[in-house]
TrEMBL record:
The lineage of its organism: Eukaryota, Viridiplantae, Streptophyta, Embryophyta, Tracheophyta. InterPro entries: START-like_dom_sf (IPR023393), START_lipid-bd_dom (IPR002913), START_lipid_transfer (IPR051213). PANTHER family: MEMBRANE RELATED PROTEIN-LIKE, PHOSPHATIDYLCHOLINE TRANSFER PROTEIN. Residues 144-333 form the START domain. Keywords: Membrane, Transmembrane, Transmembrane helix. This is START domain-containing protein. PROSITE patterns: START. GO terms for molecular function: lipid binding.
Amino acid sequence: MDLNFTDFLRRPSVTETFVDILLCAVPIWLAVMIGLLIGWSWRPRWTGLIYLGFRSKLRFLWTAPPGFGARRLWLAFTALSAFSVCRTLWSTLAAKKSATPVEETPPDGEAEAFSREKEMDVVTEKDLEHLLYLLEAGNANMEWQSMMDKSTPNMSYKAWRHEPETGPVVYRSRTVFEDASPEIVRDFFWDDEFRPKWDPMLAYFKTLEEDTHTGTTIVHWIKKFPFFCSDREYIIGRRIWESGKKYYAVTKGVPYGALPKRDKPRRVEVYFSSWIIKAVESRKGDGQLSACEVSLVHCEDMGIPKDVAKLGVRHGMWGAVKKLNSGLRAYQTARKQGAALSRSAQMARIVTKLNMDLVETSSRVEEEEKRGGGVEKNARGQKEQFGVDWKWIVVGGVALACGLHSSAIGKALMVGAGQRLARR
């Protein structure tokens, strides 16, 4: 290989791999050590005398602390970690060796116009069809796990998630804002100038391209992440369709040649976050369409282990939703007081009239699925709980209290780690 070893180690993929291994290994080690401590403290006193009688002084010093088999455990985990690193690096290098297809270019006279048209044609009706499939037609065929069902005096929120065999987790939510119009909610979601006031993660934003004919824009975002994770960069293409005061907003990650990738912040390339906004009847029961419903579908690959990402989303979801609601109310107040529309909010008002064939086709497929017995599935429900995996503590305590055999713990850890690697 022509790669310098130092440059190779500086690659983000290598760093992220080691962080992945660390995040996966530390909880297991912590749980096992707690289990070993509990098992050691509960052991009968006479077992220590028998144990010391069978061990020589040299053996006693070698396995410090006594009975833990620390050297064997470390060697076992080092071997498994090295295998994981080699496998990830090999797959990364193999993927980079594949040739990139070269696209045909038009004649020189049309090159500039073609480039401009192609650059702005980043969000198309195919993306809209994908949104309609996820939220309407294909919804019944997907296995959704219920995550949350909460409400405040002026908002209600429900959330689900779907875990495909490959790719990132897909999240779906339904939010109903009382005393809000679809137009104000549409402008609010698009207003990047106002967003930092309620979204503390957004550290930087800039509009790269905009098309005043279709309303398509390409924006550059940088989001702040916790100290143990580098910031993330997004190049987002977005566009809005409209049909009878019902808005279909599509945002997704798009390539942008004028802004090459860097080591930091790390770019998120797999990103799809889109929603349907419409007026609905208020829960006051007055028959007025004074509330606004937002049906959202969201998925992205941030380069974080899936289990860690799910844990972060679950624990931070309700806090983020409450900030969103507070931001919307502040935005409503500012607009009522005559605040000027930002450029991004003005672009939100440039919408594309929706091709009704798409909606009719989606509705027809959905009705056929319902007649065929398609029902929203919540098979797993809320079975998966986050927190300490107590089975590791039980295994550690039982293993130590029932014999203190130094190699038994290492074998148990190797089996558990092997199962984890197989699932990945």
